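Hi there. Long-time user, first ticket. I'm pasting a complex I've been working with (about 963 residues overall). I'd like to know whether the download I got is complete or cut off, because the file seemed smaller than I expected. Thanks.
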Amino acid sequence: MEKILTKKSFSKWVKKLESYKIYAPVKNDDLWNYEIIDIPESIQPDYPNTVLSPKKIIFPQREIFLEFKASNEEGLEVKEILPEERPAIIFGVRPCDARALTLTDNVFKGDFEDPYYWKRRNQTILIGLTCNIPPSFDCFCLSVGGSPHSKDGLDILMTDLEDKYYIESLTKKGNQLINLAKDCFEEPKVMDKKDLEKIQANSEIQIKRQIKDIKKIPKKLKGMFDTPFWDKESLSCIQCGICTYLCPTCHCFDINDEVASSAPLKGKRVRTWDNCQFPDFTMHSSGHNPRPDKASRLRQRILHKFQYFVELYENFQCVGCGRCISKCPVGIDIIEVLDKVRDYGL
Amino acid sequence: MVKVEDIKKEAKRILKEGKVKYIIGYKKSTNGLMSVPAFIESPEDVENLIWDPTCVYNLTRFLVDEKRRKAREKNPDERPVGIVVKGCDSRAIIVLLQEKFINRENIYVLGISCETTGVLDEKKLLKKLNGKKAEKVEYDEKDNFIITTLDGKSKVPADEILAERCLECRANFPVINDILFGEKVDRKLDNRFKSLEKIESLSKEKRWGFWKEQLDKCIRCYACRSVCPMCYCDECVVDTINFAVTADTTAEEKAQRIKWVEKSPTTSENFVYHFVRAIHLAGRCIDCGECERVCPMDIPLRFLNKKMEKEAKELFDYDAGFDPDQPSLVSCFKDEDPEDFIR
Amino acid sequence: MDYNVYIPKLAKIIEIKEEVGGSRPIKSFRTHFINKNDFSHRCGQSAMISVLGKGESMISISSSPLVKDYLQFSILKMGRVTTALHEMQVGNVIGIRGPYGNGFPIEEWKGKNLVFIGGGIGLAPIWSVLNTALGKREDYGDLILIYGARTSKDLVFNDELKELKKKITVFLSVDVEEEGWKEFVGFVPQNVTDKKPSPKNSITVTCGPPIMIKFVIKALKDLGFEDEQIYTTVENKMKCGIGKCGRCNIGKHYVCKDGPVYSWAQLKNLPQEY
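Hi, the file is complete. Here it is re-exported in full:
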C-alpha cells in the first residue's frame, strides 16, 4: 500500500495509535536514543544515528527470565517471567537497523526458539525512515547488501518529501496502522512517486564509505585464522564493549542469577548483554581461555560477522550502520580492517 | 605547536639505533579527522607520525598491554618502548612509576609540551560545525583553531573547542621525559576546579537526581575502565569471575568470589561500578579525561574523578602524578591527616 | 510457542556417590524429575544443570539412555555451580534443561569394535555410550576401555570398573608409580600406544583433558586409525546451551548445539579455539 501523509496530518495519525507503546528517537543533551514517548509530534528527519539501535527494545540489555524462591512443598519454586503483553511501534527506524533485526531473527529462531525475543519482536511494529542524507559519516550500508531506503524488516517505510511523507506500507501490520486513520492519508500522485524515486536514488549517492569486493572477504578470512594479522590489527584495541554493544546485529548474552535473599532463597535469573571482546566471555572455570588475548577476540568479532555468519545464514552479520567506527575509542575502523583482509598477502 | 618533523627526527634516530623496540605515537585515522594510536616499529614507518590538536589519546594505557604481553613472552625484547606523551599523559607515567607498575628503564619518553594550546574535544567540534565534517584543524599560535571543511576555512577561538581538561590543565609541560619537544610555557589558571562549581552548588537531592539520570544511561561497556591507564588490576571488582586463576586455585576460592556488582545495568549496579572506580582513582587520576571522552553515552565521568582530585587536594594537600618518589595517597598516612581513625 | 527453552525442569537428587575425594573431588548425582516430562537423551548429550541462586553449568549425562529410572551426572568440583552441587544432599532440588548437543552417532557404529579412551572425569560421557553398548551387546563387536587418572584414587566409577572387567577388556593406568598398583603406569596416550588397539573395523571414543586428547589422537594415528574412526568431545564455556549466547563457538560450530561430539576428520579442520 502506498500513501501520502502530510506533515500536518502526522500527529493526527499518531494520536490514533494511542493504544500502542510508542518509541521514537529523542535527543537528550547531545545524544539521540529511542525512548518511549507520549505524543511524537513530529519525527525530525535529519537526526543523526541513535547511539543504540532498536535492538535495545527487541533484545533489551536486561531481560528477566524467571523468578525462583524456596518453597515448602518441593523445596523450590520457579516462575517463568515473560515480557509484558503490549503492542509497540518504533518510529524513525533507520533501514539498516531494521535489516539488522532480520539478521538477528536467524539466531533466535531454529530448533530452540527464544520466547523472550519473539514475544517482543512479534508485538513490535517497525516504521522506518529513508536516510535522505546519511545519519553518520561512517555509513556503508550499500557495501553489505542494504541501502538508505531498504525495506527489509520494516512494516512501513516513510520517506521525507519536505512537506509530506511518502508512505510505503510493506506488511499487514503496516496496513492496519494506516487503516486506523484512513482520513489522514492521501493517494500519491505521479509527481510524488517521481520525487520519491529521485530522493531515494540521491540517498544512495550520498553514502561515501564502502568496502570494495566484499564478496571475496569470507573466503579470504578462512585462510587467515592463524596469521599475525590479528596481532597487529588489535594493537590499539582496548577491549571495551562499545563496538559490540552498539552493534545492531551483535546478540551475545550472559545469563546470571541475581539473588535478593539467600535464606530463604529468593531471586531472579536474568539475561544481560555480553560480548566477545571481554576476556571472561570464553574463560573456562579452570582458568583456561581459548581466546586468551585481544588478537583472538578481535579476530572472533570479524570472523563471526564476515565468515561464520555468512556460512550459516548466507548474509554478513553487519548492516553498515557505522556505529562501531564512529564510537570506537581508538578509531578502529572495520572498513579499513576488511580492506586489509581483502588485500592481505597480495 | 611543536613541529612534527622534530618528533619524527628523534623517532627515526632511536629506532635506527635500536634504542627502543617500538614507539607508541599518533597517526592519521582512515575515517576522518581524528588521530589514532600508532605503533611504529621501523624507521620507515616514522613518516606516519603526526602531532596536531587531534592527538587526544593518553597513550600510556598501552604500557599496561606492553607489560602483560612481555610477561607472556618466553624471550622478551628487553629494550624500552618509546612513548609520545603530552603533559597530562606524562603524569600517568609518574603514577605508574610511583606504584611500581612500570620501571623507568622500560620506557623512553618523548615528551611534548602543549605550550599555549591543547587538544580538541571532538564532540564540541562536531556541535560547532553543526554536524559538518572537519577535514583539518590547525592551531594559529594565537589562541584560535583554523578548521577546514568542504565549505572552506573558518576560525574558532580555541577555548570553544578545546577539551574540558585542557581548560583546567595544570601540566601543559611533560613532568618526565627523555627528550623534550617544545617550550615550557606558564599558563594562567584561576580555579583548577571551576568545572565542579555548578554541580557542587546543587542540593543533595538535585545532585542525586543528576547522577541517577547520568548513570542510568550507562550500558556497562567498560570503555571508561578499559581506556584508563590506572585501571590495570588483573581482576576488577566488577568482574563476576576470577581472572587470575591458576591450577592451584581451588573450587572453593572460585565459588566464594563475591559478586559485588551484577551485570545488569540497573541504577544500583551502575552506581556501585562508577563509585568504586572513582574511589579507586582517588589520588591516582591525573585528569587525562579519557573516560569521559570515550563514553558512548556521554556520561560526565570527569566530574567524579575531578571531585576526588579536589578532595585529595583539600584534605591531604595531595597532587597525583608530579613526583614519582612521593608515597601514593591511599597507601600512606601522616600525623597531620585529618581523620584520626588510623592512629 | 508453549514451551520456554530457558526454564529448567525441577529434579530431586535421589542418590549421591563420592567418586573421588581430595582437592579435585568428583561426585555422581542421580536425579529424578519432580514432574513427569518427555526428557530423553542420546549418548554423549549434556544438560544444563541449575543450582538456583548460583547459576547453570553444562554437564554431560553419564547414565545410559537405556536407564529410565534416573539421570546421572558425574561432576568435578570446579567453580561456583559445581561447588554448590557438591554441598547438596539427597532430597535437594536442582533444575535441569536439555538435553543438548549432538551425541555420539552410535547407530552408525553398529557391528564395529568400540575402543573407549578416557582420562579423569572424561569417563563420564564415555560411561553413557559404554553402558548403552553393553545393554545392546549383540549390536557391537569387541568393547575395550583404556582409562587412566593421576592416581588410583582419582579413578571414577571404581566399583563399577571392577564389575566391568568381568565383561570387557579394561586397561587402567595411573600417571605416577604407586604402591600396590599392578597395571600400567604412565599417561593415557602412552597406555594407548602400549596396548595397541587395532584400527580394523573399530571406532575410538576419547574424552578427557585437551592435552590428553591431543596426544591420544597422535597415538591413534600412529597405530593406523583413520581420522573418521576417531571421535572425541570438545568442551567450552557455555551459558545458553542452545547456540545463541555466542561464546562456545569454534568457527561456525556452536559446541553446545552442534557438538560436543566431533570426529577428528571434522575437528581438525576447525579453529583450535577450545
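A couple of notes from our side: Chain A has two domains: 2-64+75-205, 214-255+274-343. The mean pLDDT of chain A is 93.
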